[in-house]
Design goal:
By secondary structure, the chain is an alpha+beta fold. It has one domain: Nuclear Transport Factor 2, Chain: A (Roll), CATH 3.10.450. 39% of the residues lie in helices and 41% in strands. It is built from 3 helices and 7 strands, in the order H-H-E-E-H-E-E-E-E-E. Helix 1 runs antiparallel to helix 2. The model has no long low-confidence stretch (mean pLDDT 90).
Length: 148
């Protein structure tokens, strides 16, 4: 009886292992896209942003202003918006919701361009929604709020 139970446990572990590895791979892909956002905005690296931002992005800033992918990137190119820093307080928490959807929740310290040209620091909490398209995780929606 014990041997049969051990055998059943070992079999179950072998069957579950590939799905656990796949989940870890998906989480790593989401974190790579998350990092692509933070590195892309601080660069600014427009090629990176183009890769990791979905074409139908809705980007809701902590001020309540809303951008699309095109308007978000254009504001950076025009010098109207700038991120000098975007450092995560801790690694964002990833929750894979399905084969092509995930969210991240986290806290980030940012320094952005203020209205008078000064650098403005803030700590933000955020919720990011990701979709997987053509094998690439992309940011579909951003929502943040200031915590200081």
């Amino acid at each position: 009886m014990i041997r049969r139970s051990l055998l059943a446990f070992a079999f179950a572990a072998l069957v579950a292992a590939p799905s656990l590895l796949a989940a870890d791979k998906e989480e790593a892909g989401v974190l790579a896209a998350e990092t692509g956002w933070s590195k892309g905005v601080t660069g600014p690296d427009y090629a990176m942003l183009d890769k990791f931002l979905a074409d139908d992005l809705t980007y809701t800033h902590s001020t309540g202003a809303v951008d699309t992918k095109a308007s978000y990137i254009q504001k950076m190119k025009d010098g109207k918006m700038r991120y000098f820093k975007a450092d995560y307080v801790a690694e964002p928490r990833v929750q894979v919701l399905g084969k092509d959807s995930a969210i991240t929740i986290g806290k980030v310290n940012v320094v952005t361009l203020g209205a008078n040209g000064a650098q403005v620091p803030a700590t933000l909490i955020f919720l990011h929604v990701f979709v997987k398209r053509h094998g690439q995780w992309q940011l579909l929606a951003h929502q943040s709020a200031k915590v200081n």
